[in-house]
Design brief:
This protein has helices at about 25-40, 55-70, 95-100, 110-115, 120-135, 145-150, 155-165, 195-215, 215-220, 230-240, 255-260, and strands at about 15-20, 50-55, 75-80, 105-110, 135-140, 180, 220-225, 245-250. It is α/β, with parallel strands linked by helices. The chain has a single domain, classed as Alpha-Beta Barrel (TIM Barrel), CATH 3.20.20. The model has no long low-confidence stretch (mean pLDDT about 95). Bound molecules: 1,3-dihydroxyacetonephosphate. Homodimer.
Length: about 270
Amino acid sequence: MTISQNGAFVRQPLIAGNWKMNMDHVQGITLVQKLAWTLKDHEHDYDRAEVAVFPPFTDIRGVQTLTLGDKLDLVYGAQDLSAHDSGAYTGEISGQFLKKLGCTYVLVGHSERREYHNETNEVIASKLAAAYRHEVTPVLCVGEGLEVRKAGEHVAFTLEQLNESLAGVSAEQAENLVIAYEPVWAIGTGEVAGPADAQELCAAIRGALAERFGEDIAQKTRLLYGGSVKASNAAAIMRERDVDGVLVGGASLDAEEFANIVRFEHHLVTD
Ligand SMILES: O=C(CO)COP(=O)(O)O
């Protein structure tokens, strides 16, 4: 992240936990409670770093009730949304429902959706449009697979995904946008792209956003890294200038571990 002269972050860091298809609604409430208590014990300042969880759809109502009832500062989102608003789309979830459930964010184009549900950049562009229609901030996920990385084409590939997915997004809409760079080969594998890899792609993404929407918006947009992030590697990744947060899978299912990722500032080595 980038720190200004007065010690403030130029862009508010975002520490996000994607639970994927884990945690039923009862387990989900327990996890959020435990996370909130742990962060309270750590005297976490939510203004300094935003904390978001992305539970399965079936957990969201419970998480909403808990956060409202206990006046929790953490925010939440969904892992996907339909490109449509309502109608005969069996099994799909409208952005309208997510808005009503108090979702701040929605993941769009996660690599697992691209892979298992054949989501193309075109589909993802229409899901982004749906997120904007319902005023839920999209977290657009991009990133290359192993073959592309080995061929050294990771920057070009990722920027193509980015540009095609953002095809219908206006500069005004882009004021509310988070991008997550998640190299597929580093997801759930224990392989972590090094801090320098995360920085390389985040800088390239920021450059592409500047070309598309102007420098001002590019400088305001938060860019996350995701792929085998743990408490032990989060701080080193977060130190990079263009990395403004992390999107955590497996390690977000453990409240202590995730809370320690949120405490990345305490692990920063100042040299
Ligand atoms: O896909 C991810 C987050 O969206 C990353 O998952 P892991 O942290 O389990 O590698």
